[in-house]
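lol so apparently i was supposed to do this last week
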Amino acid sequence: MSSSPTWPAGHRSALVVSIDVDGPYGEINHHGPDDSYWWSQAEYDLNAGIWRLLDILRDRAVAASFCWVGRCVEDRPDAVERAQDDGHDHAIHSWDHRHYARRSYEDQLQDAIRTVEALEAVTGQRPTGHKSPGWSFNDETRRVVQELGLLWQMDYARSDLPWIDRPDPDGAPVVQLPQSRFYDDYTYFVDATVNPRNAAEFWRDDLDVLRAEGKLMCLTLHPWVSGRPGPSNALANLLDYAISLGDIWIARADHVAQWWLEREATG
Ligand SMILES: [Zn+2]
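anyway here it is w/ zinc ion bound
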């Protein structure tokens, strides 16, 4: 265990806003290409939702981490460019949102490389992290992330703090950042329909507990869901609350991961 402070000076806990840009591909894979009801809902992602979320983040000077489906990068490089101009972090979220859990190491690796290359072509920078499509992954996924030299992965829900992963003990460390279905907007606005004020209240209550314990909240939002008018207020409300507390480190995933590595290195 490290004896270093959990978070940078002056901060009691940390909040990462991660935004999964699935475009229509998540719903196409989930419901099938013939289910126009769902993929048409998700077309809101890049046409409308992402721009509203970008504005909310910009208005509050909050830097987030965008997890891109490779095909979305190809479809709308202008959205990637805007996110980059606004100072957000970039991560990969598979090529076309086909789930990873039953795919081989080599298949996942090629899928991830294609996505990395699409992002690099637009941003000129290497993405820093990985989140699996639909949180569908296996042990090979961790090896792929390490092989690609990515700094972080956000797939495991097992704790409220990061942990350092080395699938190959001789390879570079990967920081595992915790996800939770309770911090995923699907739970509130797709699997159910909740009043956005209640969603924000749920998140604020969780943040209070995590702040008291010195832990980490990683939100997972989708532009076609949280970019809708009412649900966008749930994010705005949580951010305004976190900012008002004055001691929440609202940080990009790569910055939290980098901090965690430095913290472990200094013991
Ligand atoms: Zn997704």
